[in-house]
Write a structure and sequence with these properties.
Length: 334
């Protein structure tokens, strides 16, 4: 069942380009030169119930603009969006009931209230009935261990505690879809682990649909089964994470440590990419030769002391995407 349907959305921002110098400033004042920038440039996707999708891309790719349109904060210049069959542009109030949103850099809690009082206030804002509220609080308390700091004023919470509070706040009204924008930014390893465990638990027990934007590739690795990669306002890849890694980075590395120096280190199917003393890095395409064949060939000609094979990871795949996707648009002057 499709929870989110996005059809060819575009968001154009109008910028005023200031000219340099006093003359330029005066000219800009009377005849401003406007520039149209496409933050999002024709994006379409469908996300089913229970999916955890990583929406990733470099700075300025259009991630926040997309999320703001999905949550109804921004209106697309063109295109359409449906969340649980409702358009955030036509009926924001109804959509907000279906959504939980967490921004790692901002909080929706109230600085001057205790954490528990913040939740009470949100209960009233979202008009959550007493039974649902109590049930959700009980579950969230167990998973996020809120009772340790439920009576602490929000401004005195550590970042990790505040993030746990924010996640609980986003889940109080039982949303079907959760948007997470950099949910683990600035957190230590334990706090990151707790947040990721929580997301997985909510996804498993409530079939929660999650869209995650993050620059933390460990978040992506541990949480997401599907990736949508954007660059310059367009989708450049969309598919299962493992398939994408496989497709984008068919190359593996073989790292070999020799017992002593040897002149000829070449192999017809392996590229020597780095050497540090007796340690050598080969790169090879798994379609051309298997690791077993390469190891067997090299051990016949080289005095190998130790070796390891390094599989490409998500970071390699994403680096590959960013490398091959040069800017696509030239801003138009209006
Ligand atoms: N309010 C705005 N006015 C003008 N241009 C904007 C505005 N917000 C975003 N943009 C432009 O739209 C493009 C997409 O920005 P967006 O913030 O969506 O990227 P992002 O992928 O979220 O980046 P980051 O990872 O840095 O948060 C950028 O070129 C940005 O400069």
């Amino acid at each position: 069942m499709a929870m989110i349907e996005v059809n060819n959305i575009v968001k154009e921002y109008m910028l005023i380009r200031k000219e340099t110098g006093l003359r330029g400033s005066i000219k800009s004042l009377f005849a401003p030169k406007k520039e149209c920038v496409r933050g999002v440039d024709g994006i379409s996707f469908t996300i089913d119930k229970g999916e955890i999708v990583g929406y990733i891309g470099p700075n300025g790719a259009g991630k926040s603009t997309t999320i703001k349109m999905l949550t109804g904060i921004l209106h697309p210049t063109s295109g359409s969006i449906q969340i649980c069959g409702i358009s955030p542009q036509e009926n924001r109030k109804a959509v907000v009931q279906k959504l939980g949103v967490v921004f790692g850099q901002r909080t929706q809690l109230y600085w001057d209230l205790r954490l528990g009082e913040s939740f009470e206030l949100l209960r009233r804002i979202y008009q959550i009935d007493e039974r649902t509220y109590q049930e959700n609080m009980a579950l969230l308390n167990v998973v996020l261990k809120l009772s340790d700091f439920i009576d602490t004023p929000v401004r005195q919470l550590s970042l990790g505690q505040r993030m746990r509070g924010d996640l609980a706040a986003a889940m109080l009204h039982s949303p079907s879809v959760l948007f997470l924008d950099e949910p683990t930014i600035g957190l230590d390893a334990d706090a990151k682990h707790a947040i990721r465990q929580f997301i997985m638990e909510m996804n498993r027990t409530k079939a929660l649909t999650v869209i995650l934007t993050t620059h933390d590739l460990d978040d992506v690795e541990q949480l997401c089964s599907r990736l949508i990669i954007v660059n310059h306002g367009k989708i450049v890849e969309d598919g299962p994470k493992d398939e994408l890694i496989h497709k984008l980075t068919p190359k593996r590395q073989l790292i070999v440590e020799l017992q002593h120096h040897v002149e000829d280190l070449t192999h017809p199917y392996a590229e020597l990419i780095k050497q540090d003393g007796l340690k050598i890095w080969y790169q090879f395409n798994k379609k051309s030769i298997t690791a077993a064949e390469l190891i067997s060939d090299l051990s016949r000609k080289l005095p190998i002391q130790d070796l390891s094979v390094r599989e490409p990871d998500i970071e390699d795949a994403i680096r590959e995407v960013y490398k091959t996707n040069t800017p696509l648009k030239i801003p138009s002057l209006v």
